[in-house]
Amino acid sequence: MRSNVDPKKLEQLMDILGKEARGAGSIYFTGGASALLIGWRSSTVDVDIRLDPEPPGIFQAIAKLKQDLNINIELASPQDFLPPLPGWRERSVFIGKKGQIFFYHYDFTAQALSKLSRGYDRDINDVQAMFEQGLFSLANLRDCFEAIEPDLIRFPSLNPDALKSRVENFIEQADQMQAEGPS
């Protein structure tokens, strides 16, 4: 059983990956790792990453780190569950550079759509937190969903109608909350 990851452990992970990688590349954090770094969660069970482009030597560094820091690192990003959103790289938020590794938050619009596709309470709470932090816009959420909607058929485990309903409901509720203003 791996221990939970907190912001300090995530910073250690970034430092060590930057030192251990044998070449340049980019690592995109998703889910709990983004939540930790931005501050709407204090811990996460695992660190989900996407390598693009993959830094040389990164898998050896990850294998070592999983043991040394006692953390779970998984290769997972929104595009493992949904079609890649147009412009996801441009919307990804730069975190910093360690050694030759560039670290980013994977596109928050894509993260929101991915979490809405799962629909768990914690995921919906994360989407709400991302929206409240201004990490994506409702217009962009709608536009990106519409852009990938024709390709959802390529993901058989996904229910396109359920996702569309969750996206529309989230936008409607968020619009309503914005109209009412702070309570």
From TrEMBL:
UniProt name for this protein: DUF6036 domain-containing protein
Residues annotated as domain DUF6036: 31-143
Taxonomy of the source species: Bacteria, Bacillati, Cyanobacteriota, Cyanophyceae, Oculatellales
